[in-house]
Amino acid sequence: MPEPGPPYRPGRRVLRGWGRTAPTAADVVLPADEARVAELLADPPPGTGVVPRGLGRSYGDAAQCAGGTVVDLAQLDWVGGIDEATGEVEVGAGASLQRLLEHALPRGWFLPVTPGTRLVTVGGAVAADVHGKNHHRDGSFARHVTALTLATPNGVRHLVPGRRGRGAAKAEDDALFWATAGGMGLTGVVTRATVRLLPVETDRMLVDTDRYDDLGAVMAAMESGDDGYRYSVAWVDCTATGRHTGRAVLTRGDHARREDLPARRREGLPRAPGTSRLRIPRPGPRHLLNPLTVAAFNELWFRHAPRHRVAEVLPLAGFFHPLDGVADWNLLYGERGFLQYQFVVADGDVVARAIDQLAANRVPSFLAVLKRFGPGTPGPLSFPTPGWTLALDVPMGPPALGALLDRIDEMVAEAGGRVYLAKDARLRPDLVRTMYPRLDELQHVRRRVDPAGVLRSDLSRRLGLDLDRKEP
Ligand SMILES: Cc1cc2nc3c(=O)[nH]c(=O)nc-3n(C[C@H](O)[C@H](O)[C@H](O)COP(=O)(O)OP(=O)(O)OC[C@H]3O[C@@H](n4cnc5c(N)ncnc54)[C@H](O)[C@@H]3O)c2cc1C
To answer: Whole-prediction pTM value?
Structure first.
């Protein structure tokens, strides 16, 4: 019987990503502290390899290692005190962003970057170098990490990016830090991180909403206006065709200040959103989500959105993490699961062509997410690069889906873009090198800290990223 989800018990378990498409079995270990993690990597168990795992919110096979060992960081979930002068907080890598928020928000601090769910760990956020709706302004998660502790097969390293100093050791530490940020767990196990938080006055957002009838209009509005907002995201209807292709609802905003709230709401401390009580008990029926039901949902949702609304005060959770309202919502996609597909590309025409093809092929995708990225980090495997990023969920099943996504991948790669590995379950290995042209730098760093090639995952195996395995 597959495990329902984290936290796992130690022992041989069947693990899946959030999309539930590629289950494999591995030995799960739950180290009690950092010393145990260090010991495990210094003397790895026999098997096909070792990979860390957070809350399993990556969609594909990144936190799995068939026949190997999966290091679940659930017990390293402590949160330290916040330095009120700098906003820095030290946390265990297994702490979730939910937990960090519960600690930080009542003290007037928010996450510098948050993905679309707060149910990811700090370790997972570093390893995928996650982005939020503020990438165009604040960059990705690793930009706000001021120190990391990383357990590797060659010992424990304390890494401080940008620390003053010169010489080979300093350059090596910087290279290891940036290879780890976005490195999908392939450089070692992050055991703790120091994160610089963002000061906020309230737990509300001040949001402007605009509805656009086609893709060109929403992209023009984002290009001309996003810089005026900290957060921006467009929800695109990829099932609409003809002159409505790419119609979208754009929401943009920033944290509300006390004076933005009605007088009765100004007092009291900001509160973190709670965890959901709503659950999906079991996988949904096979044909629940099909081109007709999804298009009908998208139509209703689009009509319901206001054409133009300004300064609406919204709770944080609804703005940042609408999907966290229902636990296990991924089960709605049924036993076969679903793919999340996300790419980034500088050329907006490529996004338009991809949406055209998805709509023309009647791919049943719920609202896709369109965002603009600013400059990336020095990480060779970090996903964000300047341009447009489109992300969509697609149920597994339509026979032509694989070939269609392959064609979009090729188009994206040819235009200098890339697919996000934290979401991926299907990319062709020959395209990875084109999409991530600095892979050799990553492998060079990995050989230094993991000469026997212990760190590996189903994703690294599938994409041909494994180092040669040497028996110790
Ligand atoms: C609803 C939803 C919305 C999302 N929205 C966004 C979004 O807006 N932006 C975005 O960037 N991502 C988004 N994601 C993806 C998610 O943020 C990333 O996949 C994140 O890595 C998941 O963290 P996790 O703790 O669940 O890690 P896991 O999924 O368990 O692992 C992910 C990767 O991190 C590695 N890893 C985990 N812990 C450690 C550690 N301690 N040390 C080293 N490596 C480690 C694993 O080996 C694996 O390669 C979303 C996911 C969901 C389900």
So the answer is: 0.96
Question: Cβ of 302: how many Cβ atoms within 10 Å?
Answer: 19
Which CB contacts under 8 angstroms, 24+ apart, belong to 276-279? Answer: 276/324, 276/325, 276/326, 276/327, 277/327, 278/325, 278/326, 278/327, 279/326, 279/327, 279/328
pLDDT at 2: 44
Tokens 């990979």 found at: 51
What's the average model confidence in pLDDT over 356-380? 93
* 121 C-beta closer than 6 A to ligand 1: yes
Question: Distance between CA atoms of 182 and 462, rounded to whole angstroms?
Answer: 17
Outline which parts of the chain fall under CATH 3.40.462.
204-426
Q: Which amino acid is at 349?
A: D
Assess whether pLDDT exceeds 80 at residue 276. Answer: no
- Average pLDDT, whole number, for the chain? 93
Please name the amino acid found at residue 136. H
* φ, ψ at 122 (rounded to 5°): -65, -40
Query: What is the CATH architecture assignment of 204-426?
Result: 3-Layer(aba) Sandwich (3.40)
β-pairing, 338-345 vs 418-419, is: antiparallel
For residue 252, pLDDT beyond 60: yes
pLDDT in tens, 11-36: 999 999 999 999 999 999 999 999 99
The segment(s) of the chain belonging to CATH 3.30.465.10 are 79-200
Least confident range from 58-72, 133-147, 295-309: namely 295-309
Confidence at residue 302, expressed as pLDDT on a 0 to 100 scale: 85
Give me the architecture of the 79-200 domain, per CATH: 2-Layer Sandwich (3.30)
Asked if residue 7 has pLDDT above 70, the reply is no
Distance CA 385, CA 375 (A): 6
Residue 58 CA to ligand 1 center (angstroms) comes to: 5
Q: Is the CB of 56 under 6 A from ligand 1?
A: yes
Q: How far apart are the first and last CA of the chain?
A: 34
Ligand 1 atom 18 nearest Cα:
58
Atom 5, ligand 1: residue with shortest CA distance: 116
| Ligand 1 centroid distance, CA of 95 (Å) | 12
CA separation (Å) from 470 to 46, 48, 49, 293? 12, 11, 11, 51
Give the residue carrying structure tokens 């019987």. 1
Cα 125 from Cα 144, distance rounded (Å): 11
Q: Find the mean pLDDT for residues 215-234.
A: 98
**Cα–Cα dist 101/348, whole Å:** 35
Residue given tokens 């999309």 in the structure block: 19
**Per-residue model confidence (pLDDT) at position 5:** 59
